[in-house]
Amino acid sequence: QDPTAAHYMFQDDPFLMPKNAANSRLFSLSKESGRNAAKYIIKQFPQYFDKTFAEPNVPCLMPDTLTPQIEGVSEEALKERIRLRKVKDSVDLFDQLVQAGTAVSLETTNSLLDLLCFYGDEESTLEKEEEEKEDLEEPGVNASEQKAPKRQFQRSSQSSGSRWRENNSAERIFKIMPERNAHSYCTMIRGMVKHGASAKAYDMYIDLLNERHKADVHTFNALIAAVPYLKERFLERWELAKVFLNHMAQQEVQPNLLTFNALLKTLRRCGGVGRSMSLLVIKEMEALDIEPSLATYDHLLFIFYRGVDLCPSGIISEVLDDVEKRSFTPQDPGDGMFGSFKILTGLLQCCDLKDIKLAYRLNKAMEKGDNWKFLDMDRLNAYWSKFFSLLCMMEQIDVVLKWYKEMSPSLFYPTPKNILDLLQALDAANHLEVIPSVWEDMKQLGFNRRQDLLEELLSLMSREKHPDEIQLAFAKCAEDIKAVHEQTGREQAPLEWTGSALSHVALLFSRAGRTQDAWNVMERFQQINRIPTEQVMDEFLNCAKQTNCPDEAIKLVKLAAYLGLPSSQKLKSRTEKEFELSEKQK
């Protein structure tokens, strides 16, 4: 892998090679937005895409036929519209069949219910074709009997999509069905849970039991996931979840991976009860020979990481013992979110514990097989950013620089925090000669106007004297920083000088023997009503002496006298003693 190359998604358009994390996010979102726009146009205007010019024709690469081919009012036409996911057309055609007295088979009616419950009685869109992960997180609390916050409980939603409306088409069709089987009830329950009507879903489940039907495993999974919306107290939630598990055993429904993940997801919102019961759930999975997925570890780490009185390192080490042995494939909708919490949370723990060995293990597990694919661009950048910050804190500087060269920009774009961490690591290891190359990276990343970074950079370069070669490189950096402060143009306003920044730049110019540049900076002190330090004055006088510039030395004495500095007399004496002055200059 070329460490200087950008992410593969940008390599087909060199003009759009991102320079920093913000550009990377913008360009990647723009690309995905373009794809979605193209899909939308094809779906909305299929009549313009009915001609095939490809030779040879590859059907799987051609747009799907989305226009109904069967005309008239018939059950076959209804089936076709259901297959094409035409929600409104399917409901209208079903109503016409009922009004005409045509009996619709139970199988077809159930298929219509499936469509309505999936899309929430709204027309299908590209955005709704992928179910989003439910946000069931709630602050961890130690007291198992503590009540969940009422406002949080009421505001929580199980889906960011459409809400379940009262007496919608699905409910209306369900009520007029001449006969209903278990599939009918299960579809309604799952649709209600998906679209936030958990209480109605529970009532529907009671009706299913009263009709002596049996629910399938997917319905139980949905009901278990809805438990936090049915009960407020943590212990009551766990008791209701156990009720559903007992019903599964009574109805001889075999649990699957999604069942246990739904249970762990519910335990995330059960405070101390969740922490005490989650390990029992994992043991039950082992007893049934069900391998955990990434979402399983996500839930487990969330439960224990939120516990302030528990040491998280033990849990993450045990999780890593399992994860390191396997390469994962998606098995749960929550697997895609594994990276956003499990890996990043793990790195947060490593940072808190200052455990670099644990971080290396985590990184090795993330890179094994295709595990890295579970992280999108944003999460990958966040992951590497945290990992690099930990390296700067704990590793030797040679190792840090090796990782930095290999990671940027092929794996991540450093954040301002990463640059600050790197500068502090260079300072701690006394490797300040690397700063000019870091400054070049800062310019490339667009951080050359960050006041905090500029102050840190200037402070490190000017703190002490270095060999001439390094001082010249530092002076070049100072020149760039001076240009940023004095930048004129419509695009960006010049940065405001601070007294400390002026002092640092003047010192760097003086030590590099650039007397005129140093004097130009000294004049700025008077313009912005700042006072140069005695060190700055002495360094400038040394520079003037080294370059034999008595005129600049006299200007310095005049400036000190104008500002009323106590050191003006001392500077005057030094100038008279160290410079050969003409009568006029005297």
Automatic annotation (TrEMBL):
GO terms for biological process: mitochondrial translation; regulation of translation. InterPro entries: PPR_rpt, PTCD3, Rib_mS39_PPR, TPR-like_helical_dom_sf. Residues 127-167 are annotated as: Disordered. Its main location: mitochondrion. GO terms for molecular function: ribosomal small subunit binding; rRNA binding. The keyword tRNA processing does not apply. GO terms for cellular component: mitochondrion; ribonucleoprotein complex; ribosome. Gene3D superfamilies: Tetratricopeptide repeat domain (1.25.40.10). It is found in: Mitochondrion. Residues 127-138 have a biased composition (Acidic residues). Keywords: Mitochondrion, Repeat, Ribonucleoprotein, Ribosomal protein, RNA-binding, rRNA-binding, Transit peptide, Translation regulation. Belongs to the mitochondrion-specific ribosomal protein mS39 family. This is Small ribosomal subunit protein mS39. It comes from Fregetta grallaria (White-bellied storm-petrel).
